[in-house]
């Protein structure tokens, strides 16, 4: 603005410009995420800032749709209008010919490329498993708008998870799950998918047995009758379900739990315990690898 422009007009102009920058910022942040991922294929084009080495860019798929990088802030997408929000995006770690394929959803407050999700996905890929991640619409909207709306009720996300299973098209050998909320939603759709032969098993990473500070508000009713073989990796002092609490719940015999000593909801232990979050992530990946192949 020039020196003669009134301050109120300058502020008004800024308010109009800033919202339009959020999509560019979201694209830049997504492109800067690192981690070795699947090579480019006919179904998956490499996306990200063109100045970044291809091996560091995330592989991005939209089922039959694609994303292609056209510049630092010029990513072009093909929308499927039936989605009702944004195209469904997958980030995949691992090899195409992996004998185990896992579909994971994120937790309530962090996206699919959070530090936790990146770390566990790569740990599983290191054990010859292919891991695909996706985002629910509310989280994808945050990338576009920059506004942090609260997550919707888990029940309203069930259809999106079912859609992700169909879009990935991995068949009956698919393992589904997720971090916290993502794992809870997966557990809510698991039995129907398992009975119809569309998935193999269920994996939950830090299951939210109850809201923080509300130990009597249990989210376990469907877990009492779950028929899908399930593995839950849980920190012993997770505020959403400690070991002492969970051992008192009535859970189906199909549910196995791998406990991570002194871990919190993100598997982080206290320093005095002698454990580390990195060690717990490796332990969880080992447990998942052994379990999926043992029951496979």
Rg over alpha carbons: 20 Å
* Share of β-strand residues: 15-25%
Q: Helix- and strand-based class?
A: alpha/beta
Distance between the termini: 65 Å
Low-confidence stretches: 23-84
Q: Sheet bearing the most strands, described?
A: 11 strands, mixed
| Mean pLDDT over all positions | 79
According to DSSP, the number of beta strands is 11
- Given the structure, what is the number of helices? 7
Shape: globular
Helical residues, percent: 25-40%
Helix-strand topology string? HEEEEEEHEHHEHEEHEH
Textual characterization of the structure:
32% of the residues lie in helices and 17% in strands. The N and C termini lie far apart (65 Å). Strands 1, 2, 3, 4, 5, 6, 7, 8, 9, 10 and 11 form an eleven-stranded mixed sheet that branches. It has helices at 7-31, 115-125, 137-145, 158-168, 181-195, 243-246, 277-295, and strands at 45-46, 59-62, 65-68, 76-77, 90-93, 100-105, 129-134, 174-179, 201-205, 230-235, 255-260. It has 296 residues and is α/β, with parallel strands linked by helices.
